[in-house]
Amino acid sequence: MITSDQLHDVLEREQALRGYLDIDGKSIQLEEEELRTQDPAFWEDAKRAEAQMKKVKDLKKWIELYNDVKAAADEVQLAYEYVKEGIVSEEELDANYAKAIELIENLEFRNMLRDEADQMSCVLKINSGAGGTESQDWASMLYRMYTRWAEANGYKISIANYQDGDEAGIKTATINIEGDYAYGYLKSENGVHRLVRVSPYNAQGKRMTSFASVFVTPLVDDSIEVKIDQAAISWDTFRSGGAGGQNVNKVESGVRLRYQFKDPYTGEEEEILIENTETRDQPKNRENAMRQLRSILYDKELKHRMAEQEKVEAGKKKIEWGSQIRSYVFDDRRVKDHRTNYQTSDVTGVMDGKIDGFIKAYLMEFAGSESAEK
């Protein structure tokens, strides 16, 4: 049976969330935003109307999630009193408490994702490192891990690009993961992932180390302003076969976008290369490639803001976007994140997409400083 201190903790955290989230203010704002949708001319500007409806939906979601927490906390308080009278069993009280804690922790976790980009869908790109078949096989394992995670969390997945490895695995894959807060959660995966295992491709059964890099960028929509120099764009077309299987179409025609990017802050130049083989419709692939370009340029701006703030606040723990972030050591049954020191022995679970522990540990350590930096 829970203690009075545990009950007090639930009620205190529920009230704290009401304040943090400004539920009273959000309720007033929701009424005002809903009134705007009743304007007879509301749907004349479709883009503006869509943005307004999204704002209403987001406000409703926060209020609904808090109301669920409030109801669960009240239920615990009521059950605590009823146990004394023999109306409710201790087991029922404990079950109510467990439900309330889960809802509270989930909302506290979601509250960490406050930045504009956090609520967006994302583009996740996996590249195999040096090492041929070994790293290409490792890249395909990461591909499976992320698609499993996305499917388990109800996200829509589409494959923008997929290139098979020479003998096994993949050379590269780009996945669009669409749904609320996909970027906020998966930004924790940016960096180099290291695998240590006894290689199935080595006749001597040697322990091998393989690397693959993961890049995650927000998937921006038309409501985000991104400046693109049309003169810096060039296109190629090619025929290609995509990955087979569920949710993936075999494609016949692809596009290759080259964008000559000049950093407006440093003057440095680089070529951004995007390949899209998502559909059989070449114009649609061009549209998808442009969407990815906008996402990459938006992400570059986010990183610039972060870098500038790091210069000012050099004492803060730095987040390295391109560094080795995690080691997966199969023989030792250990997966460890080097930024947070969070680790687990459930290697099989992790490779099946159970990476929420790593995501939460990252956000607990870095989300606050990221918010301050933007």
Overall 3D geometry?
globular
Secondary-structure element pattern, one letter each: HHHHEHEEHEEEEEHEEEHH
Rg (CA only): 24 Å
Helix percent reads 40-55%
- Number-wise, the strands total 11
Distance between the termini: 44 Å
Q: Which strand order do you get reading across the main beta sheet?
A: 2-3-1-5-4-9-10-11
Largest β sheet strand count, sense and barrel closure: 8 strands, mixed
What's the multimeric state?
Answer: single chain
Brief overview:
It holds the Pfam family RF-1. With 374 residues, this protein is of the alpha+beta class.
Can you give keywords for this protein?
9 helices; 22% strand; alpha+beta; eight-stranded mixed β-sheet; globular; 11 strands; three-stranded antiparallel β-sheet
What can you tell me about this protein's structure?
The protein is an alpha+beta fold and 374 residues long. Helices cover 46% and strands 22% of the residues. It contains nine helices and eleven strands. Helix 3 (46-85) packs antiparallel against helix 4. Belongs to the prokaryotic/mitochondrial release factor family. Pfam families: PCRF, RF-1. Keywords: Cytoplasm, Methylation, Protein biosynthesis. The modification N5-methylglutamine is found at residue 246.
